[in-house]
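agent> fetching stored inputs for the shikimate-3-phosphate docking request
agent> found them:
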Amino acid sequence: MKIYLIGMMGSGKSTVGELLSDRLKIKFIDLDSTVETNTQKTVSEIFEQDGELHFRKLESKALENTIGIDAVVACGGGIILDENNRYLLQSSGKTIFLNSSISELAKRLESANDRPLLADKHIEKELEKISSERINLYEETAHLTINVNNRTPMEITNHILDQLN
Ligand code: S3P
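agent> prediction call returned; pasting tokens
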């Protein structure tokens, strides 16, 4: 079984992904962490030193490398920007969009300093802008959309498991 979690930064993909993989007894893969391990750099360092485009290539490669592996995969928020990535997400597993309000995302990301796209920006405004550019892609790519507002990671996990059954 293969499950991809997609959605904006701060939507809980990694936390929910770990819980879900535990319950399904399959591997958990976090694409950002995979890229960081492979390069021995943080995502912020890659953005800073090599540029976003280079990060996107590494991210796509990390996604391709999960094909054929039974796992829950937490994808970086920008995974859906690439057409081939969208094709892989739609054709090689079940893709779930964790949909969150901007205000909840902003609350969670308030003190985060590991999201290069938000660095030195007004967080809520920037999230609004990014989300409006991506929302259609998240919705088109996902087989299932889960509203995560006001739900704990455990409740979201249970809800996903109900929907999968
Ligand atoms: C990004 C989201 C981040 C990370 C990078 C870019 C994005 O992952 O891949 O900072 O473009 O939305 P998370 O969604 O896990 O925060």
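agent> quick read of the result: The beta strands are 2-6, 27-30, 71-74, 94-99, 144-147.
agent> awaiting further instructions
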